[in-house]
Amino acid sequence: MAITTFGAIYIGSYEVSLKIFELSQRKQLRIIDHLRSRVGLGKDAFTTGTIGYEPVEELCQILKEFRRIMDGYRVDDYQAYASVALRDVKNAPFIIDQIWQRTRIRVEILSNSERRFIGYESLAYRPAFEQMIQERAAVVDVGGGGLQITLFTKGRAVTTQHIDLGILRLREKLSGIEAMVTHYEKQLQEMVDKEMELFRSLYLAEKNIKYVILLGDYIGEITKGVERKKEDGSIEAERFIKKLKKYQKKNTIELSPDAESSNEDDPLLLPSAVLYKRTVEEIGAEYVWIPGVDISDGMAYDYARNHKLFKPEHNFEEDILSAAKFLAERYQSYSKHTEALLETSLAIFDAMKNVHGLSRRERLLLQAAVLLHDCGKYISMMNQADCSYQIIMSSELIGMTHLEREIVACTVKYNSNPLVPYEELADKVDQQSYMAVAKLAAILKIANALDRSHKQKFKNVKASLKEKQLLITVEAKESLVLERGLFPVYADAFERIFSVKPCIKEKRLLN
Fold first, then answer.
1. Looking at per-residue confidence, does 434 or 245 come out higher?
2. Which of 89, 424, 441, 501 is the most buried (most CB within 10 A)?
3. CA 105 vs CA 32, 56, 455, 493: distances in Å
4. Is the fold of 3-110 the same as that of 127-290?
């Protein structure tokens, strides 16, 4: 049985870690070493917008040692990711270059959605997770720079929201008043309450959450000793909240020994306790589950999935479509027209597969674009295309990379607007992605043209490619005069991109 040794390096806001795994094709993942070192990158990042010389020097020394350890274990492959601490600083490109020159480790900076998805992957291989999300569940992933809440129902993600309430960010915002007040924890709680109450009012109205699943920093340390009574390993929420309330009555120094922290005067334990407690209270779940995994575990599972070592039971693609549909419904744009477009656009995509050269993944992005193509009308009927673009780019669709979200948003935008030259989009997409946008938008335009009246005048759409002609056959329930009249405008754009002429073949249904 082949075994792959994999190293996962994660550069966080206040900690750098290395986990070394053994991965086998029997879906077995074994941790063989785990190292963690404190580096205060986030403090500089969140206060000055740059990271100074000393933290960078310390980071490079740690990574050089990580490189030596990985060589000692003879790792077959590694991945090194950095979080918000590097993503949001002005000198990030220079830091990444210094790391490579001095350690020969290539670091990739993750977007927020990519970071959260990798953490989420660490859950998807656990049977308890699949059971919990069949009911209403919320995954709360807390980091140094922010927290992410993803809501699930009937086994699918419906929305994910990022909130700037990370442990270190919260600490830095209030560091100036800590010595000025008697009850510092109350100021922490006020900061958390403002954001969490807004989230609850917008996304949790009439939603009874049974499970809240907690990922992130310090959660394992501050919940040691809490008895797990349920068979699935979860904790009664009341018991969890009661435990954390005790922490809020103590100052930072008193908190650490009780939490059995390795750092006895860690100033981040109190913000952690407040943040976790208020999040669980506002979500109002019955049970809390702490699976004990972190971003490094997610990196290992992500590597195994991408290299076809593991195949998760959970369908991540369905999460993307579920979240896109929820977003469309939120902006009152999901309709029978949307369902008709899904059928038509996928029929065209599949018929053109030998011409467009797009992958199964682009087919998924087309589905997401169809679901979201009208969402901007909620804001402006006049500027629907631009508003749709902004809505999509401002929303977290967990499971998509930032580039994929850009492809979807541009596909929607240029479904309505004329496609601009690549040079005008070069700062957003590469040439390959630009071609994907052009092709997906052309397909969506043709599908849209066939239901221009939004009356679904036909059914049973079939598409077939015959030489240089795409024949779209429909069974019409009523006259398609409007659609036929407007079709040539969209057909010309399609033909310019694919060198294939689309034609409508109408079969009239007998009454």
1. 434
2. 441
3. 20, 14, 57, 45
4. yes
